[in-house]
Design a protein that fits this description.
four-stranded antiparallel β-sheet; alpha/beta; 16 strands; eight-stranded mixed β-sheet; Aminopeptidase; single chain; binds nickel (II) ion; 2 domains; 35% helix; 24% strand; 395 residues
Length: 395
């Protein structure tokens, strides 16, 4: 381990003046939320901040930024990532810095993640000469599902080329304030959507003998799909297949030509994902032929499983234990069934993603994506410490 960039006391003292600055930056970003790949104002703000600190940030994934602390020292030993986009939803709070854009709001706390990484940028720039290796800061656009996948674009554009490890954090109001949650291996679910189009031969409801009824066939397919998980994978498989839409028919005496089904798939292991996808296709195909109808299946994978590297996870646990104590570092309730596009970065190089708890004592704080949610500024010091601790630990 290198010499400490900041002693614990020095960092505490430095954070006293830095945290108000970061809080102000966070509120400004909150007030001007931008959707995925539209984060031009946010990008300009971060760019100006970085340039004032001597960085030469490069654009990545249209509205993202990549900045190296010591580019003269070659490819970075580690990278730290913050997501910067907001959600397409209304803000119902009366905060002084509430969103000025109707239908856009920072309801996942990416404004906070951004401010935290801006703080880390500032601290690292102050110790630039003492750094024994390069560190890369990734300000990533478009994490949120609907138009997400900014991480995938950044990886494709080479933002992680030569980088040894990458880390990211997420605030979580459902966990106690100040707790750090992480686990090696599966951390977040893979998500996918599927659509099935069942095509039969329609006709008069009184003359089924002249039809190939897609309603009965689709009902059979829905029943058969229940075996994908229950008969297809082991008890530890942990997959979910839910048919959530069933559309067909227009009248009580007409057998339709077509029925459309769709639903969601959640898995935690790439091997299981493959089995589930294969079994869905087989079951649909087989059931359709039983009923003498045609069925087309389309599966659209969203984000892959987020798998934390063992060594990187150990580093997060070590750093967190030193900061918040062993009682506040846990893997409780993990993996989580949500999706996260940091998974693409974790596929590219060893990575660890962790949660920082921001909940109140009763754990009744509005959760991420709730209209009343607001990032807890009180967690900024811990989040900055975690990233700075990881830099110290990994260099
Ligand atoms: Ni989020």
């Amino acid at each position: 381990m290198s010499t400490l960039l900041f002693s614990p006391d020095a960092l505490t003292e430095r954070l006293e003046t830095l945290v108000p600055e970061l809080t102000e930056a966070r509120h400004d970003i909150h007030k001007h939320p931008e959707l995925g790949f539209e984060e031009t104002r946010t990008q300009a703000k971060i760019k100006a901040w970085l340039e004032s600190l001597g960085y030469e940030p490069c654009v990545s994934a249209q509205t993202g930024l990549v900045a190296d602390v010591r580019p003269d020292l070659g490819t970075p030993t580690l990278a730290l990532r913050a997501d910067i986009d907001c959600l397409p939803m209304h803000e119902h709070t009366d905060l002084p810095y509430r969103s000025v854009h109707d239908g856009k709001a920072h309801k996942c706390g990416h404004d906070g993640h951004t401010a935290v990484l801006m703080g880390v940028a500032k601290l690292l720039s102050e110790k630039r000469d003492a750094l024994p290796a390069n560190v890369r800061l990734l300000f990533q656009p478009a994490e949120e599902g609907v138009r997400g996948g900014g991480a995938k674009v950044m990886v494709a554009e080479g933002a992680l080329e030569g980088v040894k490890e990458v880390y990211a954090l997420h605030n979580w109001p459902g966990y106690p304030h100040g707790e750090v949650r992480v686990r090696a291996g599966t951390m977040m679910a893979a998500t996918a959507e599927f659509e099935v189009t069942v095509t039969g031969v329609g006709g008069h409801g009184s003359q089924p003998q002249h039809c190939r009824d897609p309603i009965v066939a689709a009902a059979g397919i829905v029943s058969a799909l229940q075996t994908v998980v229950s008969r297809g994978i082991s008890s530890e498989g942990g997959a979910v297949v839910s048919v959530c839409q069933f559309h067909g028919g227009t009248a009580n005496n007409v057998i339709p030509d077509e029925v459309r089904l769709s639903g969601t798939i959640r898995t935690f292991d790439p091997a299981v994902t493959e089995v589930v996808f294969d079994r869905i296709r087989e079951v649909v195909r087989g059931s359709a032929s039983t009923f003498g109808v045609q069925a087309q299946v389309e599966i659209h994978p969203d984000y892959p499983v987020l798998v934390n590297d063992a060594e990187c996870t150990a580093a997060v646990e070590r750093v967190a234990t030193a900061i918040v104590g062993p009682d506040n570092v846990t893997s409780d309730e993990l993996p989580m069934a949500g999706g996260e596009d940091f998974a693409y970065m974790a596929q590219a190089i060893p990575a660890a993603y962790f949660f920082v708890g921001t909940g109140n004592d009763e754990l009744t704080s509005p959760v991420c994506h709730h209209p009343d949610f607001d990032f807890a500024d009180s967690i900024i010091p811990l989040a900055v410490r975690m990233f700075m601790g990881l830099v110290e630990d990994r260099l």
